[in-house]
Amino acid sequence: MLKSLTVTNFALIEQAVVEFDEGLNILTGETGAGKSILIDALSIILGNRASVDSIRTGCDFFRVEAVFDISKLTSIYKIIDEQGITLEDDAVVIVSRRFSRQGKNSILINGCHVTVNTLRQIGEKLVDMHGQHENQALLRPESYLALLDAFDKNIKIELEQYRQLHQKWVEVIKQQEVLAQNSRERAQRIDMLSWQTKEIALAQLKPGEEEEIEQQIPVLSNVEKITTAVNRSYILLEQGTDGIQGIIPALAEVKHELEMIARYDNRIQEQLASISDALYQLEESCTDLRLYGDEIDFDPHKLATLQERMDVIYKLKKKYGTTITEILQYYEKSLAELEDIHNYDQTIAKFSQQQKTLEEKLNFHCERLHTLRMQSSKRLSEQIGKHLTDLGMANATFDIAVISRPDFTIHGTDEVSFLFSANLGEQTKPLYKIASGGELSRIALAIKTVCAYRDAVGIMVFDEIDAGIGGQAGHMIAEKVANVACARQVLCITHLPQIACMADRHVYIKKQIEGERTNTIVTVLTKEEQLLELTRMISGNEITPIALENANQIFKSALIKKEKWKNKAQA
Fold first, then answer.
1. Strands across the sheet with 2-10, in order?
2. CA-to-CA distance for 62 and 71, rounded, in angstroms?
3. Are 141 and 416 in contact (CB under 8 A)?
4. Cβ neighbours for 130, distance < 8 A, ≥ 6 positions apart
5. CATH number of 2-133+428-570
6. pTM value?
7. Which residues on neighbouring strands pair with residue 524, listed in sequence order?
8. pLDDT digit string (tens) for 522-566?
9. Could you tell me which residues come within 8 angstroms of residue 204 by beta carbon, excluding any fewer than 6 positions away?
10. Where are the domains of the chain?
């Protein structure tokens, strides 16, 4: 429920603090006093568009703050939690909005900054605004289906299952459209991938091949230098040059001399061992050098072949990867993509089958939705018709037509029409074509009365729902509004005493001139003040004993009726 509303520098209101009660909160006052200004301020706190035109003349900003008790509105908890808004144990939500002439918009919910979109999402869960503008929603056929679906919780359950399937169906349709649109690109892609994979396959690349070639080319390119160096090294080790003995024979003589010394002095054994090891290693290395030299063979053709191979690898690296491994990975990936593309027909067939299967399931749920909607439409139209009779439209006929169409939508395949006839014997026609403003107000109230106990929104606002209505119809509207207030907190702007007498809390709004400024004053009336205001609404500004007694009788009668309705609602 809305506990309080604080308005600062908004239109004609300089400062107003209004506390509201459960049940029916009535707002009255002379025409132009600012009743709708208060409702406009509430709509601002619910996420409606703010404008600098709403800032009081001479002020730099307006500020509106509302305090809500959401303990009975568990549907709003999820949104608050997702936004990281702190909610205390008392389940109180404080919404504050400040708007400056520079267009700076500051929105706080329990001290947390939020966007207008977030505020609007929360506002829709908090309050159901209903006024002349909302009556016009009854002239829009696209709103009828939502009204019907909200009437039966079984429809909501079935619709949720349908929508999950519908989302999958839409995705399958989109995937098929993408495949069809990309047919030309697909052919071009096939040509390119086929050429690339063929080029890589012809190269017959092997992992590690590049490193091996890079090792061979320098050897083949310098065979003559390598051969000369090997031969000279072998000669120096084994034969010697220019009359100088070879290193190995010389080292053998050294070894022989040390062996002779070792016969007489063991202290030379360490040096002998070192010389012996060096001799054996040099002999082994000399043998390896000879074999290495024998293996080296200058082959110009092999060198050219290896250089050509490196050119091939280099060109492929520029196109497909920095290494042979990356080129081969690209090759495998391209082959897989080619296979997928070549399986296009199978993919299309798979999606087509998925679409067919989903459509069979969608049709099943659509039939169930249609049956539920037909049943609900009958019950809803009957209940609305009874309330229209109570509202002075005894000869009116109200029907709800549910028609199946061939196309799947997010709501199923049904379209809903509200059919109406105000006069006996006249054929029903679409509501938006024939209903007058006064008829729309009463139809809207009848719908709200029926849906009050099913609506998840805890607060309803009726902005002059009695416009253009009086007499007996006014009494009937008063009773319907009061009945709705047994299940929901209701804020209602009215000019009718028949409705005002039903108030659980009466808020009086008047316009007052102070010096050169006009200010709107908002006051919560006591029971005595409420009776005087009711008298004024009945007889005008002249309050006579007879008018006062008449108002008192109406007031007492309203109290008895409200007590009876509340007891019935609680039963």
1. 13-19, 2-10, 61-69, 92-100, 105-109, 112-113
2. 29
3. yes
4. 444, 448, 460, 461, 462, 463, 465
5. 3.40.50.300
6. 0.61
7. 507
8. 899 998 999 988 888 888 777 788 888 888 898 888 888 888 877
9. none
10. 2-133+428-570, 187-341
